[in-house]
Specification:
41% helix, 141 residues, mainly alpha, 2 strands, extended
Length: 141
């Protein structure tokens, strides 16, 4: 573990190249909107995510979040009060995260070990929290 920690420290250590830069970088930047997303942006990003994906530690799935929205804003019939409450709290949580306040649940993932075809071979999959995945989707869009 100590050896891995040292490898990662070295990998992300700042290196002073001094005058010997490998190439010149001329970048003026882009104007990127990094403000707190509104409800419409959150909904749009949510609906770009695939259903049926494994949830994180809280067991909250994309399917469940989408059902809150559908039941809070049905095309026909009356909205469900419980769905409205859940959807509003979900929007508040996502917006809260964009203010630099990250819930501690984002510090954890579930590691699922999957055996590979070769003898003794395994592959690990890390299941992240669904809200964490949605925030990544919003940033990507």
């Amino acid at each position: 573990m100590e050896e891995n920690r040292k490898i990662y420290e070295d990998l992300f250590a700042e290196v002073d190249l001094g005058e010997d830069k490998p190439f010149e970088v001329d970048y003026e930047g882009m104007d990127i909107d990094d403000s707190v997303p509104n409800e419409l942006e959150i909904k749009g990003s949510l609906y770009k995510m695939r259903n049926g994906k494994a949830p994180g530690a809280t067991n909250l799935s994309i399917d469940q979040i989408k059902s809150w929205y559908v039941n809070a804003f049905p095309k026909r019939g009356q909205p469900l009060e419980s769905a409205i409450r859940c959807w509003k709290k979900f929007v508040d949580l996502v917006q809260y995260c964009f203010q630099g306040k990250i819930p501690s649940a984002f510090n954890y993932g579930i590691l699922v070990i999957i055996p590979k075809d070769d003898v003794g071979g395994i592959r690990g999959i890390g299941l992240l929290e669904t809200v964490h995945k949605l925030i990544s989707q919003i940033i990507n869009l």
